[in-house]
Amino acid sequence: MRTFSFAGGETGEWRIERIAAVTGESLPAAPRLRILQGPDAAGTAAWCLRGITSNERYVNRGEKGALVAVQPALGRPEARHAALIPIRKSSAWWALPQDERRAIFEEQSSHIATGLEYLPAVARRLHHCRDLATDEPFDFLTWFEYAPQDVTAFEKLVARLRSSPEWSFVDREVDVRLIRT
Ligand code: HEM
To answer: Which atom of ligand 1 is nearest to the CA of 166?
Structure first.
């Protein structure tokens, strides 16, 4: 099952430290986050976001090799901090052909090259929402796990990506930070 549900509510392994709107509307406050593998959030969540893992769209052979060589798995015991960053891109982005999106993503914004500098400190999983049959409020649910000593580095990474040309196409972004309990 490649579908994951992120439910903000009263229960879950992750304590929500803060929810900040970066661009556009925020998400309702909630004390905890529960991640379920599958489409349904149990019970009375304040909000539930769903996405699906998928094939890669942009990485080339060399980048793939570089990523696979250093990227850590999720669930490392020391990686007690996490970020859930749901992102929507504009219709202008989605109207572009694949080659132009790739050029903005990497040749102009160095998304992968920048990200690689923060590996293996940061583990990640990308979920696509547009591949679901239902209308979803975001296009991507990005999930990251890192250790307490890498909090500052993670902030730097996020700031670098947000100042890149790729982010001029982001029309909604919420930043949810969590700690594993
Ligand atoms: C930890 C270091 C990071 C690495 C190594 C990394 C790497 C990647 C790669 C390889 C892809 C493309 C996958 C594909 O080919 O389809 C991707 C996509 C994406 N990443 Fe990152 N990333 C990192 C951090 C981040 C952060 C911090 C954010 C959010 C603030 C982010 C947001 C996204 C989004 C939204 C996409 C989807 C873009 C699209 O398909 O239009 N990434 N990332």
So the answer is: 41
Give the Cα-Cα-Cα angle 41, 21, 45 (nearest 5 degrees): 15
Q: Count Cα atoms within 13 angstroms, Cβ side, for 14.
A: 25
Tell me how far apart the alpha carbons of residues 136 and 129 are, in angstroms, rounded to a whole number: 6
Select from 93, 111, 161 the residue to mutate for testing ligand 1; criterion: most ligand atoms less than 8 Å from CB. Answer: 111
In eight-state DSSP terms, residue 43 is S
Those residues whose C-beta lies under 8 Å from the C-beta of residue 75, and which sit 6 or more positions away, are: 123, 145
Q: What's the pLDDT tens digit per position in 37-50?
A: 987 766 678 999 99
How many CB atoms are located within 10 Å of the residue 19 CB? 18
**Pocket residues for ligand 1 (CB within 6 Å)?**
56-59, 67, 85, 87, 89, 111-112, 115-116, 118-119, 122, 124, 126, 140, 142, 144, 157-158, 161
pLDDT tens track for 79-117: 999 999 999 999 999 999 999 999 999 999 999 999 999
User: Which residue reads 């090799």 in tokens?
Assistant: 65
Cα dihedral 72, 143, 7, 137, rounded to 10, equals: -150
